[in-house]
Amino acid sequence: MNVLVCISKTPETTAKINFVEGGTAFDSAGVNYIMNPYDEWYALVRAVELKEKNGGEVTVFHVGDASSDIVIRKALSIGGDKAVRVNADPKDSFFVAKQIAQYCKDNPQDIIFFGKETIDYNGAEVGSMASEMLDIPFISFASKLEENGESFIAERDIEGGVQSVEVRAPFAISSAKGIAEQRIPNMKSIMMSKRKPVAVIEPVESETLVEITHYETPPPKSGVKLFEMENLEELVRILRDEEKVI
Question: Taking CA atoms, which of 143, 197, 216, 228 is between 20 and 30 Å from 107?
Answer without folding.
Answer: 143
